[in-house]
Prior knowledge:
By secondary structure, the chain is an all-alpha fold. 71% of the residues lie in helices and 0% in strands.
Amino acid sequence: MMSETARLCYGKYEKNSVLALALEDQFPDNEGWSVVVRCYAALQLMNAYLLDKANVKLKLDAADHELRRKAMAQCPELRDAPRKYRDLKELSENIRYNPEFELTTIHRQESKVLFAKIIAIVDAKIKKS
């Protein structure tokens, strides 16, 4: 059974997933914001999973990615989802912070593939519990 906080995170994951698709459909030249929103969707999905793990302590009031990374490292059942999450996060950071970064169709597609793999692993584990 999912805790209330985890359920709220899961709801944000769902809303951000829909928003990422809407941005791509309505604003095809959105300069990568659909990728950024997709990253935040992955973050919320990961939060929803980690919050209810007994062996992990995750504080949502801290925007510390290092705490999340450490929490993911304590969950070997996530297989390569933490690496996929890190790759998606790095792409999102390049879009937001690097003015010389040029987003390509390949980057957009890569973000979709990474996100799909994260969902396949993490969402399946959430639905099992």
